[in-house]
Design a protein that fits this description.
Elements: H1 46-63, H2 73-84, H3 93-106, E1 114-115, E2 133-138, E3 141-147, E4 157-161, E5 164-165, H4 166-173, H5 185-193, H6 196-204, E6 211-216, E7 222-227, E8 250-251, E9 260-262, E10 268-272, H7 280-293, E11 298-302, H8 311-318, E12 331-334, H9 350-359, E13 360-367, E14 370-375, E15 397-402, H10 409-420, E16 424-428, E17 437-447, E18 454-463, E19 479-480, H11 485-490, H12 494-501
Parallel strand pairs: 10-11, 11-15, 15-16, 16-19
Antiparallel strand pairs: 1-18, 2-3, 3-4, 4-5, 4-6, 6-7, 8-9, 9-10, 12-14, 12-18, 13-14, 17-18
């Protein structure tokens, strides 16, 4: 049975926007692009770009909930004027997004992302090429994982590409993606898993193959190799033997798309909690009934790649895990009394604004320069006390797996577990979502009036329930696990193995 009241998807508290991949970056030393005569009509004029950049910056400055939280306002303004100075000739839509992405990234809000205009068509002058390798990015370094050329091997460390240090490529490539606060695991995951490193080479540096690469091999020696682009259909050049980290585990037949596994002969279960959907609440009921009936004393909750969704569903999960009645959201505020009624209203989607008014209401209280916001009854009171599940409540040892894609409502879940589950041990990597909360609530679509480019624009700030968050950081694991290139290509799961290692089976 479903336990949530449906409201329009636009107002899901921390709507999932994590997998919007930007095709933009900024690199101050890249080669200037000369568009020449635009016979296709695809290039944007200087006036339209300048006007839209001004609209975007002013909207950030006046109403965006993350403005000034992590990057000083004067630094954002300085960046705006610097970008404006580069818009002196017509460029493609893709290149314009490239130029303005650092401004969006400077907000340090993972829910603020750029999308192409509705009728976007790639400009014929913009060329991109497929790299014959993928990488694992960690701590400003990159290692080869999958590769399609024999000159490289899994585990080789990339030192430079075309004489540019890899740390510089990572730094400029990070402007492709907005993140919450000063977190790095969020961007590292994009650069690694979602071809962000390739995007950086194409968008930031506009490199054409072949590529001159300097590597450090696994034996510590350095060498230079040259590789060319290949078809994406070419298979992996190095044989891979995949590892099944759940070999020997039994799988429940009752939890559908949310796997619940048991380790035979041990009082141990692992429950994967994916991005929140309305139907999840019925599955939670089945899962915790099984966990209770089997007498499980050690439970792993897998929040990795949980990128958010309806936070009321996350609250339902907490009813089975928290030690006592709990609060799911610490507070909600906006920069202005009603963020749907401003000078930017004409650039916003009116249907989303209507959904906002159905779900949120001003509380007529101003504190620290912010206007507090409450939930209307149709949404539910997530800032009140939520009771525990009356049956099948779990009280055993709890282990929580997180990574850079634990974001939005997924990160709010991690914060609530850390605050209200005293036995919880966190394993993996820092959450992509901030420990303090995030900018979210209603995610508006701000359409720039001249270019048609759309920017996902949160209207509210959602404060987490964590009593002692670290400013600008996500939830930090008690046991940090660093992936290796071999883990990536073999699908080895060191997080699960670390959790098992902490349990006396």
């Amino acid at each position: 049975m479903k336990t949530t009241t449906k409201v329009p998807l636009q107002v899901i508290l921390c709507i999932t926007l994590f997998f919007v991949v930007l095709t933009s970056c900024n690199h101050q030393n890249r080669h200037n692009k000369t568009p020449g005569n635009d016979s296709t009509g695809q290039l944007l004029s200087e006036n339209s770009m300048q006007a839209d950049l001004s609209v975007l910056f002013t909207a950030f400055k006046d109403i965006h909930p993350a403005y000034g939280l992590y990057t000083p306002a004067d630094s954002v303004a300085k960046l705006y004027h610097s970008i404006a100075g580069t818009l002196r000739q017509p460029v493609s839509e893709d290149e314009f997004i490239t130029r303005i992405s650092p401004l969006v990234s400077a907000l340090k809000c993972g829910h603020t992302q750029i999308k192409h205009s509705a009728n976007y068509k790639p400009y014929t002058g913009d060329k991109t090429f497929h790299l014959p390798f993928k990488v694992l990015v960690q701590d400003d370094k990159a290692w080869v994982t999958y590769h399609q050329v024999e000159a490289l091997h899994t585990g080789d460390e990339l030192l430079s590409v075309n004489d540019v240090p890899v740390a510089d490529i990572i730094r400029h490539g990070s402007d492709l993606y907005a993140m919450d606060g000063n977190n790095h695991t969020f961007k590292e995951l994009f650069l690694s898993e979602y071809d962000g490193f390739e995007d950086a080479c194409n968008k930031c540096y506009r490199w054409a193959p072949p590529y001159r690469i300097r590597i450090r091999t696994k034996d510590g020696s350095e060498k230079a190799v040259t590789v060319d682009t290949v078809s994406s259909k070419i298979p992996q050049a190095e044989p891979v033997k995949e590892i099944d980290s759940y070999n020997g585990w039994a799988v429940s037949g009752a939890t559908e798309y949310l796997p619940l596994r048991y380790l035979p002969g041990a009082s141990l279960a692992c429950f994967e909690v994916h991005t929140y959907q309305y139907e999840d609440t019925a599955i939670y009921q089945k899962a915790f009934r099984e966990i209770h009936e089997k007498g499980i004393n050690n439970l792993i909750i897998d929040l990795r790649h949980n990128t958010g969704g309806d936070i009321r569903v996350a609250a339902k999960l907490l009813t089975y895990l928290a030690d006592a009645p709990f609060q799911m959201v610490g507070d909600v505020w906006s920069r202005v009394p009603d963020p749907t009624k401003t000078a930017f209203e004409r650039y916003f989607n009116p249907e989303i604004s209507n959904s906002f008014t159905q779900s949120f209401k001003p509380r007529d209280i101003k504190t620290d320069g912010h206007y507090l916001v409450g939930f209307r009854p149709v949404f539910g009171d997530l800032m009140g006390s939520t009771r525990l599940a009356p049956t099948d409540h779990y009280t055993g040892n709890l282990f929580v797996l997180t990574d850079g894609a634990t974001f939005s409502s997924g990160a709010h879940t991690a914060a609530a577990i850390k605050q209200y589950c005293r036995k919880a041990v966190f394993i993996g990597r820092e959450t992509g979502g901030g420990s303090e909360g995030c900018s979210g609530g209603t995610i508006q679509h701000l359409t720039l009036p001249n270019t048609g480019i759309q920017v996902d624009f949160p209207l509210l700030r959602l404060v987490s329930v964590l009593k002692h968050p670290v400013k600008g950081q996500g939830i930090l694991p008690d046991k940090i696990i660093h992936l290796t290139p071999a883990d990536v290509v073999t699908h080895n799961d060191p997080d699960i193995k670390a959790a098992i290692g902490l349990i006396s089976l």
